[in-house]
Design brief:
The radius of gyration is 16 Å and the shape is globular. The chain has one domain. Helix 1 crosses helix 4. The chain is of the alpha/beta class and 214 residues long. The longest helix has 24 residues. Strands 1-7-6-2-5-3-4 form a 7-stranded mixed sheet, sandwiched between helices. Strand 6 and strand 7 form a beta hairpin.
């Protein structure tokens, strides 16, 4: 029954609800020049944002049909994958949890074809707002830059889930923010990988805090 709901019943309902909900929101972009790069610049890239910020970013980059999103192979991931396809994303099933990345081979192939991959670096299991190694390792192997994306909303509702998921309330103001690209050397050792994980964590948290203050 759960599989039927997540695969057939809920995705079109959520697609309609998210569209109608987000059409009421007022948008401000703090650094539109970086957003233009994200939307228009050719070549491979990794796009990252926290799990708690999925709702509006999912909608904001809809319909472009050029982003490949890594989605957990869990049953709950089935719902995100099916809604994502309706929004125009191409879905890769895998996980960036801890040091494993079942979708690594497919993501590497996509990046080597100069395509774009979306990864949620704190995964589907957390810890919250702490980047795991998956996106950094992909950047090391392929030479793809890592871009950071975030938003905040005023007013908003924050769920009591592990990620404290953010839901902009209808007619609220949404502020989007982007960080400069992070590059990872191809010869990076484990210590450098850890440093890049910390850099990714710090940058995502920094641009998020900037949104929250705006």
């Amino acid at each position: 029954m759960k599989a039927f709901l997540f695969n057939t019943v809920l995705p079109p309902i959520l697609w309609v609800v998210i569209h109608l909900w987000c059409m009421t929101l007022r948008k401000e972009v703090l650094n539109p020049e970086i957003e233009r790069d994200l939307r228009e610049k050719p070549g491979k890239a990794l796009y990252t944002f926290w799990h708690s910020h999925l709702f509006y970013i999912f909608y904001h980059f809809r319909g472009l049909h050029k982003y490949h999103m890594l989605v957990s192979p869990s049953k709950d991931g089935d719902l995100i994958a099916n809604v994502g396809k309706m929004f125009g994303y191409k879905v890769v099933r895998g996980s960036s949890f801890k040091r494993t990345l079942p979708g690594t081979r497919e993501c590497i192939g996509l990046l080597k074809k100069d395509l774009k991959v979306v990864i949620i670096p704190d995964g589907s299991r957390g810890p919250r707002h702490v980047a795991q190694a998956g996106s950094v390792q992909l950047a090391r192997i392929t030479g793809a830059p890592i871009y950071t994306l975030t938003y905040d909303a005023h007013p908003k509702y924050e769920f009591s889930s592990w990620d404290r998921f953010i839901l902009p309330l209808p007619f609220s103001k949404v502020t989007l923010n982007y960080g400069p690209p992070i590059t990872v050397p191809r010869d990076a050792d484990q210590e450098t990988i850890r440093q890049k994980q910390d850099e990714l964590t710090d940058l995502l948290n920094q641009i998020t805090q900037t949104c929250e203050r705006s």
